Amino acid sequence: MLRELKIGWIKWIDSVWLKSEEIEKALEKYDIHELDMEACLEWNQKARIDTYDDYSFLIFHFPKYNTRRKLYELNEFNIFLWKDFLITLRDSTGSHINKIFNHYDELKIGSKKKDIKVTTAYILYEITQAMLEKMFNVISKMTSDIKALERDVFENDNNSTLVKEIMYKKRNIILLKHMFKPQVIVLKQLEEKVNKTYSWEIEEYFEDLEDKLEQIVNEINILQEYIDSIEDAFKSMVDIKTNFVIKMLTVFSAFMLPLTLITSFYWMNVSLPFVENIKFIFFLLFLSLFIMVFIYVFLRRSWRF
């Protein structure tokens, strides 16, 4: 899908899921560096910004959730920013971007073009602002999910599915961290470029984006510490249960050891003393019971169980 919008003296081209040949055709009439063109044709690039005299090229990443894989995936934004021109190439539809596009489309129709005071940098700010606000909702949901997971860990520590859930959460948090951390530097460089290009006050808008992005990164770091602590607690609880089972098996084996030793002697095909004496049998039973009690008392004092 490719759509164009003229707002006053500026133009915005927005596209979703264009094929390589369609991207080349859409960009061929603009003086774009070949490396930037190559980056647009190869998705899943790293977050970056390339600044030139007349335009800037940016790559941002925002998450999209794959319900089947239970994994957040990269939603890549390729952005070309001129003073009077904006091109956004993305690989996923989004209601937030559509809402912004429709807002300016209705604004253009309802107002005289010369009365519309907007710049390409401000539109880019609104796009980034919308995606960051969406990310706050993602973090809020992840926090709720991790709290629910924490309750499950302490109430059902023997549930084998908890291991998968913990791994899913850790993987998603690490992916989000690697996604947003590099973008802090990109946004700072973008702010410097915007301040040099645009005469009217827009610095405070991008400073606001920087603050929000840094807050998102901090929240992700907190989530990582949170899930790590839950994983450590889960492992400790599993270790405690394993140690308890091993302890019980050890006690049982210790109880059976004297009986096994005695019966192994008297079941051999050799002549042993007191075999025919019925009182000796009771003596052996008393001796075995005494040894078992002694082992129990010794283990209780040693292990404190």
Describe what is shown at a glance.
By secondary structure, the chain is an alpha+beta fold.
Give me the strand/helix succession: EEHHEEEEHHHHH
Distance between the termini: 69 Å
Q: How many distinct beta strands?
A: 6
Share of helix, binned:
55-70%
Mean pLDDT: 83
Which secondary structure elements does this structure contain, and how are they paired or packed?
Blueprint: E1 2-7, E2 10-16, H1 20-27, H2 34-41, E3 48-51, E4 55-66, E5 71-82, E6 85-90, H3 95-110, H4 120-155, H5 161-197, H6 203-266, H7 278-303
Parallel strand pairs: 2-6
Antiparallel strand pairs: 1-2, 3-4, 4-5, 5-6
Walk me through what this model shows.
A hairpin with a 4-residue loop joins strand 4 (55-66) and strand 5. With 305 residues, the protein is of the alpha+beta class. It is rod-shaped. The chain has a six-stranded mixed β-sheet, sandwiched between helices. The protein has seven helices and six strands, in the order E-E-H-H-E-E-E-E-H-H-H-H-H. It starts with a strand and ends with a helix. 64% of the residues lie in helices and 15% in strands. 18% of the residues are buried. It has helices at residues 20-27, 34-41, 95-110, 120-155, 161-197, 203-266, 278-303, and strands spanning 2-7, 10-16, 48-51, 55-66, 71-82, 85-90. The model has no long low-confidence stretch (mean pLDDT 83).
